[in-house]
Automatic annotation (TrEMBL):
It comes from Eisenbergiella tayi. GO terms for molecular function: metal ion binding; oxidoreductase activity. InterPro entries: ADH-like_C (IPR013149), ADH-like_N (IPR013154), ER (IPR020843), GroES-like_sf (IPR011032), NAD(P)-bd_dom_sf (IPR036291), Zn_alcohol_dh (IPR050129). Keywords: Metal-binding, Oxidoreductase, Zinc. This is Alcohol dehydrogenase.
Amino acid sequence: MEKMRMRGATLPGNSTVEMKDMEIPKPGHGQVLIQTKATTICGSDIRCIYREHVGKGPEGYIPGMVAGHEPCGVIVEEGEGLRRFKKGDRVIVYHISGCGVCNDCRRGYYISCKSRFRQAYGWQRNGGMAPYILAEEKDLIALPDELTYKDGAQVACGFGTVYEAIEKIGVCGNDAVLVTGLGPVGLAALMLAKAMGANMLIGVEMNDYRIGLAKELGLVDYVFKPDEAMEGIMKVTNGNGVERSIDASASDPGRQLAIRATREWGKIAFVGEGGTCSFTPSPDIIHGQKTIYGSWVTSLWRMEELVERLVRWGIHPEDLITDEFPIEKAGEAYALMAGGNCGKVAVVFD
Ligand SMILES: [Zn+2]
Ligand SMILES: [Zn+2]
């Protein structure tokens, strides 16, 4: 019998997308075949794979792999030995398949697994930019009925990452929250901080499209361009600065601002990847009793907690999606995301 085939998007580098014809895989022991419903594009796809293959070694993109590490879909075929999930279940794929038995994996942080068995979807194994994706049952998060597949795709990486950072610094109704960099990750940070009751939301961004989007979505009380930001933030916080800040700009000035615009005893989280940060410890953090947290992706259990809370809060990550493409137009989707005049970009499937 002839095997069923499909076409998936691969990223050869040099800002190109190549469609690849392949067999639809059969799930083995402990695996499921998922019919992909939505896969969103991450900043890391652009920075580390699409423009050029940046990562080397075990964390590098393997040329020819189907891209897409933010997939969400429905199980259409069960492998043997499944313990929890079944055909028909709507699922998010945690985008790293960890070895499952190292200390990091046992904490749920597959992202931090250093085993040679670690594989990221869309990097070292086929990801979600294809009509079907082969996944390990242990990597799945159940998608509640109240959330859409597009909501789920965003949880798989971006919202999970932001939620982790926010839980580390803690955000509540006492807090003015500053977010530097209003790309999809920064907008997600504002959306979650708002749901947690932050009493003032401040954004800093230079791209006019993204400033407009943050306003349109009702995610900012104040938004400043970088050169006017410090003065503006001090003005709206009575000269004290914010209680919490999150850097999603990944830029040196954005990070410096996040540190200096945070008041005494405040907490700062860095989630934007790459680049450097220069600051002067004594005046910038030590004398102000401030804490800076680094935060990388999230754990399986926190992702489960996040989907539960999204339902309780009644918010939808898909609201950040500004542009959708079919898989045949994946090239346009990546090009738009690379240009930056967009919110979140999604590839959606029938
Ligand atoms: Zn990502
Ligand atoms: Zn591991």
